[in-house]
Amino acid sequence: VVGIIGRNGAGKSTLLKILSRITEPSTGRIRLRGRVASLLEVGTGFHAELSGRENIFLNGAILGMTKAEIRSKFDEIVAFAEVEKFLDTPVKHYSSGMYVRLAFAVAAHLEPEILIVDEVLAVGDAQFQNKCLGKISEVASHGRTVLFVTHQIEMVDRLTRRVIWLADGRLREQGETKPVVSNYLAALSTASADVADYRVQHQHAGPRILRARTHAVLGEPKTVFRQGDVIVITLEGEAPRTTPLDVGIVVENHRDQALFASHVTDTQDAQIFTGRFSASVTIAPPVLRKGRYKISVALFSPDKKAFYDVLLHMPAFEVAGTATQEFPDDDRWGDLFLSLKWTTSAPTSLPC
To answer: DSSP states of 91-113 as a string?
Structure first.
């Protein structure tokens, strides 16, 4: 299994489209040995008007398989995708999750020599993702090649032996997974988001947020944290005139769903700022499970009647790492890992 990593816009999806013969390269050439099956963005690879059953046979035919070969794999595909009740329904009526389940099952079970998987697996639930990762490992164990693109570094650590790192459409580094991923994470740690891209409200001539950054306790810039790390988020702002302010932050998952919020006034009085200022909040473990997280932030008056500056859904940091006893990697629901105290008791005597 070969992982392909890089920031948004690095060229990962474009490379996979070229390898899948969806996009022609502007220069150079691609040499492929064997049949290629691709699972790219939702909507590619299937004919929307055809049923799930018909699309299974269509994709098999595209791979050069006979009907007999496809039939021999048909039951496995349907069982893996868990779409038995919808086999004869046109796939245009499928939910994105159903579509991805069937598309992956077809791509993985029709035995291509090369399997290409893009970030599309993020559409599925955690249980199905784990099922797919197991199948990818199985495909690779049979001597086939898997090209795997994801932003989730823990998946790269878990699945791949080699990694290709792309940056600005060029090869930045390739080699064994651990050193390449380490260099990639170090590069990410020096990056910062442009707050202007996420500003949805700003009161003219009022206080504004200049910068939002994440870092370690001692101030080292950092955007990728290991489970168990303390995460510090610092907001830097400017108040043109003396203004009493409250500062609020919402931490969100990658689907923009709010997980928790915190205000400066949760623990202290509203602050009166003039000129440049900063406000930092510390997230102590164990709170966040593995994944990518965003933040929404706001500057507002202590009575919440005036909102001076609001930024929404700004990518902020990632929590990565290998599961441990303290931070188990299981299928429990939710994005938060809270270390709650339990007590149990047994009756001292049985009722008569």
So the answer is: GGGS-HHHHHHHHHHHHHHS--S
